[in-house]
Amino acid sequence: MYQRLPEPGGMPIPFTLDGRRLEGRAGDTVAAALLAAGVETCRTSAVGGAPRAPYCMMGVCFECLVTIDGVGNRQGCLVPLQAGMAVETQLGHGKRELAR
Amino acid sequence: MQNDYDFAVVGGGLVGAAVAYGLGKRGLKVLMLDEGDVAKRASRGNFALVWVQSKGLGMPRYATWTRASSDHWPGFAAELREVAGFDLAYRRPGGFHLVLSQDELERRAASIQRLHNQDEVEPYHIEVLDGDEIRRRLPEAGPEVAGGTYCALDGDVNSLKLFRAMHAGFVRNGGSYRNGALVDRIEAGDGGYRLVTPDGAHTADRVVLAAGLDNPRLGAMVGLDVPVRPLRGQVIVTEKTAPFLDMPLSTIRQTDEGGVMIGDSQEEADDHDVMRPGINAVMADRAVRMFPRLGRLNVVRTWSALRVYSRDGFPIYEESPSHPGAYVVTCHSGVTLAAAHSQILAGKLADGGLTSDFDDFSARRFHVSAAS
Amino acid sequence: MNTLNEVSELAAAYDLVVIGAGPAGMAAATLAAGAGVSCLLVDENPAPGGQIYRGIGSTPLTERRLLGEEYWKGAEIASAFAGSAASYLPQATVWQLSPERELGISRGGRTRMIRATRVIMATGALERPFPIPGWTLPGVMTAGAAQILLKTAGVAVSGKVVLAGTGPLLWLIAAQYLAAGKRFDAILDTTPKGSWRKALSELPRFLASPYLRKGLRLMATVRGSARVISGVTALAAEGSDHLTQVRYTVAGRESVIDADHLLLHQGVVPNINMASASGCAIDWDDEQLAFVPRVDAWGATSVGGIAIAGDGAGIAGAEAAAERGRLAALDALAALGRITPEEKARRAAPIRAIVARYDRGRAFLDRLYRPAEQFRVATDATVACRCEEVTGGQIRDVVANLNVLGPNQLKSFLRCGMGPCQGRLCGLTVTETIARTRGVDPAEVGYYRLRAPVKPITLAELATLEHSEAEIKTVARG
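Output (structure tokens, whole complex):
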């Protein structure tokens, strides 16, 4: 569980996750927006197919990989959220598809 | 005096491990000596092909030797799987060599023709295909592919698993592996050799030099001239990807783990720490032109490694004329030839020595050409 | 600062390129640009600050007391950088730095190679790997990650939260969370029992350092309002698809606590990937239990023209990092002929005095918060390499049975360190697990040999790099 602190905060930023409409805030990275929306497990691992979630939030662990606007294996914690982004979890297909 | 070992194999890379494993499984008492964690390791930098097409132009015996190894591979892989307890991901679905221009295709076809025109080469089928046929057989191939060649004998393996399996098999069969044991000196004595390493000396009836680029130094200690030099190659590896390519290409292959390997350059250079971005760019560019959808994949690793190249590019297998029982085994296709080294060559050594059908591989061939 | 948006806006060459916009990088770039040299600062994040001052110009948390006064010191450094003449390229990765100081820089799917006369790496630190059973489960993240979430997005981990580990940052994060009105179900302190005794000889120097008051205040705050369980000797995260409970041992007694989140932290270590891939010499530091680039008093590495400033050259903290950035910048200015050796020495003297003040307390902290071996070496069932999913048991088996000496041969046999994180999350664990198995010092075992790209770059980007006819011939051989 995650909670936004009761601060004025940034502007709402709409995006979709697996087609579902969600809202983040200006200043969020994609990974932060997902966690704030309650989505932790963002992919299954490429070797054992185990569920994984953001771990370091600073670009070193490569656990927060998601597909953003059709491009797979992006580091969600390094990509600033933008309005209209189509984010997809990488569940069940740990290995990235060639086309994505 | 009783020596510690029947054989000492100097070198724990793919060549040394194949010979040592092959000797050990024949019941001999074998010591394998290795340099350490960081060394000029051709074995950690190979492209993992078990490759037949295009090999042997200029030395028919090499073409038949490669073919023999390729034919021994299925049995060898099954044997290693048994002894090591894991699968090597060996396969022989045939392999392609792709080209990006008509000119490249013509040169390729001509060189294969010359290879097959050599006497002694038992012909095997290589298809020369145009771009449309390639795209029919490899649906991911892009519009720039001008054609290619296909040979059903080609295959590949997970070379890291091969490497580990030969080491595991060697140890399981009772072999002794000494790591961090760079050989300082080899001394010939009565009925054997004494190998001096930083942590002690070992004696063996016979010694096999399989130390890659260190073979010239070691060979000189036992009367063997081993003219090999480094030829640097660079390889790119991408992140793991869902399977898209079920057979190897000479320059692109997808491993059983999912990563795509892209190779491989050849340049005269002896520093394995240097990597030229321009060369990686050429390899990446050609790979993306062959398979456009590869372009979006992330590169996770690149490396350079040094091939062990003789003057004509072919292996050197030879017993020292002055030091009986001292052999050199060196080549650059350690994966393809692993089966031949373990299943054939080691058998010859175990049975008493190299037979005359190995004469073509002697380094004497360089002396002859130098004299003429 | 002059913010650039695309790699096409980069010059072909700079006098100085600084990598990383934490305190060391910002301070170095500000000082150098002030002397009139052409200076570029490249950073991975959307805004300056690095990890310690992450979100310093953009955090939604306007109530200053939440993050603490220490955090806001970053604002001063950031605003000086903003006012400087340096060029700044955010959201970009440096995927290659060659010993000849050619840099490969990517942003938004485009890449460029540029040259620098001098380079200062200010690539900072990362949290030490914390390999315990279950640490790959969703619900488990580093305490630093939770802090970044708080700083940049004003998002707090909530529900049943357990914080576990050791080190000054653990207490800082705890205090920040408590100040934000959050609570912990437990704080599991893994600081080894005997550490106080071992650290005692360094106490006098520590007392004279600026850390003392700060540290005591933090610990008192946290202990006063959270359940702190000391002397934890074993730790495991449990659950099937998500963490449900944390199992821990104190004085030989095992307990279980329900948890939605486990936040792990046991100190920070230098991020050495780029330094190592550039050929900089790396040494094992037994006090900091980490590999540290070999640098002189100016941060100069073993590779000419390349310096490292800040925690990337050995952990000394944020305040010292800014000063170390200034020292490296002075050295660069002297090398570029912009200041005389005398001026360099004169200007460095007061900076060195400040660095020395922070240095005083370091050894005490290193000893007190030296993480216990059982949390540094992976147990048989614990995943050591998260990317390739290699366990401690597999490592021990191969090391013992196949007589493997170091991480590079191990990598060939087990693939550990071959995944996208390039060993950042397993390197120290693997080295220490090998060392323990062999019964030798980690210095003898060594570290992964690292190569570019130190951050992923797409194949298409790589394909756009310039190449010569001769280079084409090395590949297309016909």
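The mean pLDDT of chain C is 94.
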